[in-house]
Amino acid sequence: MGNSLYGPLDPAPDAGYENAPPRMGFFTDTSVCIGCKACEVACKEWNAVPDDGFDLLGQSYDNTGGLSANTWRHVAFIEQPSEPVFLGMPGSDLPGRAEDAERTDFRWLMMSNVCKHCTHAGCLDVCPTGALFRTEFGTVVVQEDICNGCGYCVAACPYGVIDRREGDGRAWKCTMCYDRIGDGLTPACAQACPTQSIQYGELDVLRLAATERVEKLRAEGVASARLYGHDEEDGVGGDGAFFLLLDEPEVYGLPPDPVVTTKDLPDMWKRAGLAALTMAGAVVVAFLGRRP
Amino acid sequence: MSPRGDRPMVPRADFKSYYGRPIVRPAPWTHDVAAYLFTGGLAAGSALLAAGGQATRRPRLRRAGRITALGALAASGYFLVADLGRPERFHHMLRVAKPTSPMSTGVWVFSAFGVAAGAAAVAEAAPLVPSRFARKVLPPVGAVAGLGAAAVAPALATYTAVLLSDTAAPSWHAAYPEMPFVFAGSALASGAGVGLIADPAPPARRMAVLGAALELYGARRIETTKGLLSEPYTTGRAGRLLRAGRALTALGVAGAVLGRGNRVVSALSGLSLLTASALTRFGIFDGGIASAKDPRYTVVPQRERLSRRNSPD
């Protein structure tokens, strides 16, 4: 199996595609997200995703909560007051902007979250039916006519993305609009994004653009700008959908150092094998000895 | 230890989260899966007991083991299918054999075990069959099938530990080195429990002691050596279940050893071991679910890993 469970690789050829097209991905630059939720709406419209309830959560402008079977793009809203509390009028800076003007007392982070389409996708590894598969674009998609709702993928995802739909019983998540990108179209969310916070394209190109963008932001004084999920050496072999963040990942509800659970699978089987041998040995020992 | 045991063993760690929401998603499984962990282990332990009884010519152990294995197998099949989101599609599991999926591996192990254990149990009906030919053929077929089931049984008892560990649930994953030993021990103890009820012969007692030792050792390691990730196994419902399981295991072993020669004491010990095995499985199940529901268990260990990696020493 070599590198297949861990480490950098190109997932589509690894999955057996010959002459696979370039790996496609999302680069979500949260520094220009304005929290309009056009991505959430476009995703629902294109993919005919059912509603996820009409609740008021009391969590800033976020009334969706998080990614789920019925939310494949999710915009997070984080209101960060700074100490000491400033009682004057709020400023009008763009989020993260801090050049000439004094920083305001308040920062509003917004981030459109999505399935990461991991290089080493835990959901795909553990799926027992083959319903989850790797596409020629290196993305990960569920076949709804195969999934039997075992729920294993839900437990295996290090980001808590894929989810089983109530009343339907099957697992659902972002497909990176597999039905659009095969025709050369842009996924619905990226198409609808008015600020190019969501960029879609060849992953290699996006990674270069992202590196330039984060360097530019840092040069302008936004020291908190950092990329998330871009590194092929990380615990999931790099994400097909990666992000520019302005704070630590966990602030946005992302794991700070995700590692695909199947990285340890060979070790798990070794331990299980040892336990199985111990078990067999215990039975032999128990039944040894002459009959009284 | 505090009497209720709900005191955190590790100081509360500072961490950030998004409105306290979980990061990883708990497995969408009901306690059907926890029940399967028990019945699957019971099937494996009983099949091993039956094989031991078969090899050492103890027909009562053999018969009780084979019949329990079949019953536990049927219950397991029910629990596994009932917990699917689309139960009518359970056979989609059989369209692939996928080594990266412990559930796929487990389905094939379960199927192989099921054929063998089923045949062995059916062979026990030989004396009731009117056909002389069947009466003659069934016992040797049952003997081969019984040994076949016993050969697969250790895999059936331990793959479920890999199944739980191979997830993003922090406390399940962290427990992967010892969980197979807990499950192996728990399966042995439950099989021995059946033996103690059916025929409290010395092998059943020894099997009870060895199984309980394995189970207690593994659980102890999981509850004490995983730092923050041990906490979900020592607090809340999981903590109560595991403590009750440990107490009943100890009681069962004591009864098995001290009560030899006494059918009633032995049978009660067997019952105690069976209950303990079930409680342990439910405790391990609940501990992992609890660890996925609180973002602390996801964020803090990952932060610690990052700071270890970034610090020079």
UniProtKB/TrEMBL annotation, chain A:
Domain 4Fe-4S ferredoxin-type: residue ranges: 24-54, 106-137, 138-167
Transmembrane portions of the chain: 268-289
InterPro entries, A to Z: 4Fe4S_Fe-S-bd, 4Fe4S_Fe_S_CS, FDH_Electron_Transfer_Unit, Formate_DH_Fe-S_su
Principal location listed in the UniProt entry: other
Keyword Repeat among record annotations: yes
Subcellular location as annotated: Cell envelope
CDD domains xrefs: FDH-O_like
Keywords: 4Fe-4S, Iron, Iron-sulfur, Membrane, Metal-binding, Repeat, Transmembrane, Transmembrane helix
Full protein name: 4Fe-4S dicluster domain-containing protein
UniProtKB/TrEMBL annotation, chain B:
Cellular location(s): Cell membrane
Annotated transmembrane regions: 33-52, 64-85, 105-129, 141-161, 181-198
Source organism, top-level taxon: Bacteria
Gene3D superfamilies xrefs: Formate dehydrogenase/DMSO reductase domain
Organism in which the protein naturally occurs: Paractinoplanes globisporus
Membrane topology term: Multi-pass membrane protein
Protein name: NrfD/PsrC family molybdoenzyme membrane anchor subunit
Keyword Transmembrane helix among UniProt keywords: yes
Pfam family, one: NrfD
InterPro entries according to UniProt: Electron_transfer_protein, NrfD-like
Keyword annotations from UniProtKB, A to Z: Cell membrane, Membrane, Transmembrane, Transmembrane helix
Family, as annotated: Belongs to the NrfD family.
PANTHER family: PROTEIN NRFD
